[in-house]
Specification:
GO terms for molecular function: AMP kinase activity; ATP binding; CMP kinase activity; dAMP kinase activity; dCMP kinase activity; GTP binding; nucleoside diphosphate kinase activity; nucleoside triphosphate adenylate kinase activity. The chain has 228 residues and is α/β, with parallel strands linked by helices. It has nine helices and seven strands. The structure holds P1-(5'-adenosyl)-P5-(5'-guanosyl) pentaphosphate and magnesium ion. Magnesium ion binds next to helix 1.
């Protein structure tokens, strides 16, 4: 028998560690990791209509409009009705949260509360492998060979929107739009906030929280279940 499905969201400003922590959760608990940023980058790479539109915002360090995000992500989530998942980076506005609410019930929301100075330091040191979305940090999580992806050996790049000018406005804007979303999930009693400057110190708390919430060993949930 399939275990109960589990749906979680991880929220936090750019650079707060959503991607890093999501990878650990996916590995330890077998939730499928869905990332709004990775999904946008896939659409940009594939030159879809939404991708072309999204690119004009991301390049300027702006958030992609709600209607574009919901049009892209909700159908994707609807395909996942038989899977447990962890959504990283969506919703991050109240309109997105309401749209998500109309398609599914969330079990848990993780909110990362990381000081501004820490975010600035991390993002200016962040490198990614575009094709896979693998993320490195020259101090915290360096690649084995400088400037190269560990698996493919391909060159790493820095996002334009990790550059300092774009960063300040991203961080400020994020705070404003996320506040009502955080309040909403708090009022529903599903919000868990974690504060700190180091992912490695936050992780044990998230790990133990999830151990109490996720009902069974993940393997059965995460393997691809063929549709009838
Ligand atoms: P993304 O790609 O979702 P952001 O801006 O939300 O981008 P980002 O940059 O991916 O978030 P993160 O996932 O929260 O950050 O953090 P991360 O990548 O794990 O960690 C950041 C860096 O710090 C990494 O280098 C990591 O190795 C390092 N690090 C982690 N922990 C530690 C630590 O403890 N110590 C140290 N020293 N380093 C550490 O979205 C991209 C764009 O798409 C649009 C927006 O334009 C966004 O800017 N977008 C949306 N627009 C509207 N609505 C939405 N819902 C959208 N979602 C995406
Ligand atoms: Mg990320």
């Amino acid at each position: 028998m399939m275990a109960k499905l589990f749906r979680a969201v991880i929220m936090g400003p750019p650079g707060s560690g959503k991607g890093t922590i999501s990878e650990r959760i996916a590995q330890s608990f077998g939730l499928k990791h869905l990332s709004s940023g990775d999904f946008l980058r896939e659409n940009i790479a594939a030159n879809t209509e939404a991708g072309v539109l999204a690119k004009t915002y991301i390049e300027r360090g702006l958030m992609v409009p709600d209607h574009v995000m919901t049009r892209l992500l909700l159908p994707r989530l609807e395909e996942m009705t038989r899977h447990s998942w962890l959504m990283d980076g969506f919703p991050c506005t109240l309109a997105q949260a309401k749209a998500l609410n109309s398609t599914c019930d969330l079990d848990l929301v993780i909110s990362l509360n990381i000081p501004y100075e820490t975010l600035k330091d991390r993002l200016s040191d962040r490198w990614i492998h575009l094709a896979s979305g693998r993320v490195y940090n020259m101090g915290f999580n360096p690649p084995r060979v400088q400037g190269r992806d560990d698996l493919s050996g391909e060159p790493l790049i820095q996002h334009d929107n990790d550059q300092p000018e774009a960063l300040v406005s991203r961080l400020r804007h994020y705070k404003d739009v996320a506040k009502p979303v955080i309040d909403l999930y708090k009022s529903k009693g599903i919000l868990h906030t974690f504060s700190g400057t180091e992912t490695d110190r936050i992780w044990p708390y998230i790990n133990s929280l999830l151990s109490t919430k996720i009902p069974s060993r993940p393997e059965t949930d995460t393997q691809h279940i063929p549709l009838p």
